[in-house]
Amino acid sequence: MRALVIEDNEHNVYLVRLLLESRGHEVREARDGPAGIAAARAEPPDVILLDIQLPGMDGYGVARGLRDIASLAAVPIVAVTSYAMDGDRTRAFAAGCDAYLEKPIDPDSFAQRIEEIAAAGLRRPEGSQ
Ligand code: MN
After folding, report:
1. How far is the CA of 54 from the centre of ligand 1 (A)?
2. Percent over 90 (pLDDT), the chain
3. Most CB atoms closer than 10 Å: which of 4, 31, 69, 121?
4. Quick one: pLDDT at residue 83?
5. Distance 43 CA to ligand 1 centre (A)
6. How buried is residue 35: exposed, middle or buried, by Cβ count under 10 Å (0-12/13-18/19+)?
7. How many Cα neighbours within 13 Å face the side chain of 38?
8. Exposed e or buried b per residue across 82-118, where buried means at least 16 C-beta atoms within 10 angstroms of its C-beta
9. From CA 128, how far away is CA 32, in angstroms rounded?
10. In this model, does residue 15 exceed pLDDT 90?
11. The pTM is what?
């Protein structure tokens, strides 16, 4: 599986990379929204892990930008966020995210959860997004 992590916090990037690479997955990273959108467009990954609280363009804007790209239509976007405000989850799904995981990342379950989401995303019929 090839994952793209769009996240500005280096500790979170480190942890995600460690957890996914230890299970044989490939991880690319982008530290802000525009860089993440460009990376996803250049080479569509199997799953996108998206921080919501990013400098500049926030994760909701990034999700909408990603959903405007036809070649990414079948790529699941997972919001990974410590936001605890009401309506977060709803906003993430409305912006085009397919799943929502709360930080702190649980090292025991994170990688498997992402694998499940990526596998389900690849089975999604075209146009159902
Ligand atoms: Mn952040």
Report:
1. 5
2. 82
3. 4
4. 63
5. 23
6. middle
7. 7
8. ebeeeebbebbeebbbbbbbebebeeeebbeebbebb
9. 28
10. yes
11. 0.92
